[in-house]
Amino acid sequence: MIKIDLTGCKSFESKREQYFEKAMAAFDVLESAQGAGNDFLGWNHLPSEMPQQLLDDCKAVAESWKEKNVNLVVAIGIGGSYLGAKAAIAALAHNFSVNIDADPVQVVFAGNTLSEDYMADLVDLMKIRNVAAVVISKSGTTTEPAVAFRIIKGFIEDKYGKKEAAERIVAVTDKARGALKSLATSEGYKSFVIEDNIGGRYSVLTPVGLVPIAAAGFDIDALLAGARDMEALCSSKSADNPAIQYAAARNCMYDEGKKVELLVNYNPKLVYFSEWWKQLFGESEGKEGKGLFPASVSYTTDLHSMGQYVQEGERVMFETVVSVKNPARKVEIPSDADNLDGLNYLAGKRIEYCNEKAMLGTRLAHIDGGVPQITVETETLDAYHLGGLFYFFEKACGISGYVLGINPFNQPGVEAYKKNMFALLGKPGYEELAKELAKRL
Ligand code: PA5
User: Fold this and answer.
1) Which of 5, 91, 134 lies closest to 265, judged by CA?
2) Angle subtended at Cα 138 by Cα 411 and Cα 143, rounded to the nearest 5 degrees
3) How far apart are CA 103 and CA 328, in angstroms?
4) The pTM is what?
5) Which residues pair with 324 in a beta bridge?
């Protein structure tokens, strides 16, 4: 299901035992719920404990919208309340689905930016499509999705009437607190609960991710089945546990002076998976002046832009390659009688053959250039394996954070910008800070 190759981290070999021990101790802390942030471990056994009814309820929302011929679902949320769904849909969809599917339900995202242009363009799209929306906010008070939802809710009510709007809007939020909860209750929206013990970046396998993913037409049962099998695979305190292997190796790289972990893909469908991964590790580990900086590249595309830096720039990085063993589709390079482009030596070969050679060649070049490499190989890119990948990285992140010695489940630093923004926006209660900031601007 997943294969971790650490042979590209030469220096790790001699420190293997030491780092496996650290990662296994961290695994114990996680499993025994004795560590910092232990009230946020609801994700850990979520796949095996997920009630089928909850999955069925998420699918029922998608079905009810289909019956109304909805062809545009706006998923409103930011950070952990959108990145998982975005990653999954991008990974599973046809690259050109909007242009090619006969009857596509397009899921687009909003509330993840304060760009006015973006919202105006979205309104243009909503005008010509049959629209539903899912608004996702654990706190129910985050500014970006709240602003977007006010506009989108108003649009849907104007277009379909208030009663019909209530059937086209679903909320995913806290069970009791927050403005979104009160609003959803008073408007009679179908609501899903985000449990208290699951933080945003660990929530892709809850209705936060599952409602939009189901609405896009993907198999959330398979997604959960993959996560469940990965949960079992990552459940032993042993050097065979892939999450322990990855957590051990990346902490070793960090202790050796690497500052940046580049998540590498060779398939553009994984670009947003990298964005999800960046939030997961960045928000979990970047605290107390510590933590690897999570960055990402898409090869071979970025070998023609970032490749020079990776090969010869500051030697502060290592790579983690998410490698997909079997592509879902097959395209061969044809033979050409004239061979004017000189490519006949590749005639009859699959494009994936070239991709694989590029991957191997890059691996050797980068290792030679001082960029060690971890490889995480998955069989293929379908809902089952994607579910496995989500869970694998969540588990590894929990373990890795404890090896690093921080609380991997809080995000105190995210509040700083919010306070300043509220003060500058004139939010009641922030008057003193507003005065202080005004002097500095
Ligand atoms: O991971 C996190 O906790 C954050 O990224 C949140 O998901 C993000 O800030 C959105 O918060 P909320 O869901 O409360 O609107």
Assistant:
1) 91
2) 80
3) 21
4) 0.97
5) 378
pLDDT for residue 104: 79
Spacing of C-alpha 409 from chain mean position: 16
Which residue in the block uniquely carries the two structure tokens 């679902």?
A: 73
Catalytic residue among 275, 283, 285, 319: 283
Burial of 58 (0-12, 13-18, 19+ CB in 10 A): buried
Q: Is the peptide bond before 7 cis (omega within 30 degrees of 0)?
A: no
Q: Which residues face 264 on adjacent strands?
A: 297, 321
Identical fold, 2-38+224-406 and 46-221: yes
At 145 the pLDDT is: 98
Of all protein residues, the one whose alpha carbon is nearest to atom 2 of ligand 1 is 200
For the beta carbon of residue 135, count every other beta carbon within 10 angstroms: 28
User: Tell me: the pLDDT tens digits for 215-244?
Assistant: 999 999 999 999 999 999 999 999 999 999
* Domain boundaries 2-38+224-406, corresponding CATH code: 3.40.50.10490
Note if 304 is an active site residue.
yes
Question: What pLDDT is attached to residue 100?
Answer: 82
The residue to mutate among 40, 78, 113, 149, having the most atoms of ligand 1 within 8 angstroms of its beta carbon, is: 78
The Cα–Cα gap between 48 and 38 comes to 19
Residues lining ligand 1, Cβ inside 6 A: 78-81, 137-139, 142, 145, 199-201, 283, 411
Q: Mean pLDDT over residues 253-262, rounded? A: 98
Q: Is 157 a catalytic residue?
A: no
In the chain, domain spans: 2-38+224-406, 46-221
Quote the CA–CA distance of 2 and 387 in Å, as a whole number: 12
Rg (C-alpha) for the chain, rounded Å, is 23
Tally: H helices and E strands in the chain: 18, 10
Q: Which of 81, 134, 195 to mutate to test the pocket of ligand 1 (most atoms within 8 A of CB)?
A: 81
Judged against a pLDDT cut of 90, whether residue 208 lies above it is answered with yes
Instruction: List, for residues 62-111, the tens digit of each pLDDT value.
Output: 999 999 999 999 999 999 999 999 999 999 999 998 778 777 799 999 99
Q: In this structure, which topology does domain 46-221 adopt according to CATH?
A: Rossmann fold (3.40.50)
> Tokens 């809902």 sit at which residue?
383
**Whose CA is closest to 42, among 30, 54, 53?**
30
Q: Percentage of residues in the chain with pLDDT exceeding 90?
A: 97
| pLDDT reported for residue 44 | 98
Number of the ligand 1 atom closest to the C-alpha atom of 283: 1
Give the number of residues written for the chain: 441
Bridge partners of 374?
320
Can you say whether the dihedral through the CA atoms of 433, 434, 440, 441 is positive or negative?
Answer: positive
